[in-house]
Amino acid sequence: MGMIAIAIARIHNLFAVVMLTGIFSLLGAAAYVIMDAVDVAFTEAAVGAGISTVLMLGTLALTTSEEKPSPKKNVVGALIVVTITGAVLIYGTLDMPHYGDPLAPVHQHVADRYIGQSGTEVGLPNVVTSVLASYRGYDTLGETYVIFIAAIGVLAILGRVRFPRRREEDIAEDDAQKTPDETARETGA
Amino acid sequence: MAFPGLLNYWLIIGLMMIGFYIVIAHGNLIKKIVGLNVFQVSVFLLYITMGKVEGGTAPILAEGITAYSNPLPHVLILTAIVVGVATTSLGLALVVRIRNAYGSIEEDELDVQDDRP
Amino acid sequence: MKQKIILRVISKFLIPYILLFALYVQWHGDFGPGGGFQAGVIFAAGFILYAIIFGVDTVRVVIPAVVTRLLLVFGVLLYSGVGVAGIILGGNYLDYNVLAHEPTHGQHYGILLVELGVGITVASAMITIFCTFAGRGPEDPEEEV
């Protein structure tokens, strides 16, 4: 995954970048399976490798598929910032619980209840579904609203209306028209 | 300690920093969104590694199995992935609109156009 | 891509199975991996495949824009409605125990309906987003820099 991510950072052809993003998501899904998160892997494989790649390709068709190389000054500054941030984060992990440790704090609170009781309280074998729809119903309701609002937002931004590209003359005309409009509005008010 | 120890966090932080680098070093708006996606996937991986229990299996109840991985991070990330693609598409929609309005999706060219007198 | 005969035949062959698989994931999410989110995305993927091969306008004949928008709202309302039904039947918001005589059965109904709401919302949201992107068409050539 690291190799793919570096390739994404280096390649300037956006079409290749989008394809690599799909592969990156698929590798992520494989990693989720290794870590026992089958539901998450399923979602990532369907969403990350499928829908989001298609959406990005749609955007490329509407915009451009080549990227300008970034200026040297940006690269050096970014590398410095990234190295410092990474070092701080790694320092922060030093007292984290080890991988797979059953005594980690994250397993001590509600997880036992979910695993131990959901079979009798909810009656479904898939604990993830029980937690998703029942114990944490409000959470999922909010997430559904977010998806709903995002769809409305895309409709509002890219709806049927075609916006012609603004050229310099148009902008000048706009500015010229704006002033009488605004004065009229002010006098009207 | 056992083999992976803290290595999983370090690998994830490496990925996260590559995503961060893409976001701040590149001027192309689509590239920035891809960078945010890389960052997002690494955050998801961070949550999922925390939920893993040594010797546990996927949290689907079955007879004869006693150890399960923690289902809570799975639930959070499952919804976050779908919400992530919805918000990504919103960002892409904004990119398309910017392209229509300015004719470019490179950050520096946008800056030049915005600084007009 | 209408002229590529292999793509047309294979996609016609695959799309029913994709939709069937989506429904399986939707209703079997209680027992194995799956659920509303995944089912919605897979269902939408079937329509998106159809749109890529046969064009957005053909998809809009099968499932018009009004229908996806109504379904988008309907899914969210179904989820919220299950919560309100819990209040009417004397429980808390999103409390499924009161939906049937036994708490476990109530939980079953509640989860099934809620997952259905999520699935409908996600599927119609993805179809709407894709068709909005693809429906714009490429830019006019004279606008190219």
Report on the structure:
The complex is a heterotrimer of chains A (189), B (117) and C (145). Among the domains of chain A are: 67 residues, no CATH class; 65 residues, no CATH class. Chain A is 74% helix and 0% strand. Chain A is built from 8 helices and no strands. In chain A, helix 2 runs antiparallel to helix 3 and helix 6 packs across helix 7. Chain A is extended. The termini of chain A are far apart. Chain B is mostly helical and 117 residues long. Chain B has one domain: Helix Hairpins. Chain B is 70% helix and 0% strand. In chain B, helix 1 packs antiparallel against helix 2 and helix 2 packs antiparallel against helix 3. Chain B starts with 6 loop residues before the first helix and ends with a helix. Chain C has 5 helices and no strands. Classes of the chains: A mainly alpha (189), B mainly alpha (117), C mainly alpha (145). Chains A and B meet through helix 1, helix 2, helix 3, helix 4 and helix 5 of A and helix 1, helix 2 and helix 3 of B.
Biggest chain pair interface? A-B, 91 and 89 residues
Number of H- or I-type helical stretches of chain A: 8
Q: Beta fraction of the residues of chain C?
A: under 5%
Helix- and strand-based class of chain C? Answer: mainly alpha
Order of helices and strands of chain A: HHHHHHHH
End-to-end distance of chain A, in Å? 60 Å
Helix content of chain A: over 70%
Give me the number of helical elements of chain C.
5
Low-confidence stretches of chain A: 178-189
The geometry of chain C reads as elongated
Summarize model confidence as the mean pLDDT of chain C: 82
Overall strand count of chain C: 0
**Poorly predicted ranges of chain C:** 139-145
Rg over C-alpha atoms of chain A, rounded to the nearest angstrom: 25 Å
Strand content of chain A: under 5%
* Mean pLDDT level of chain A: 77
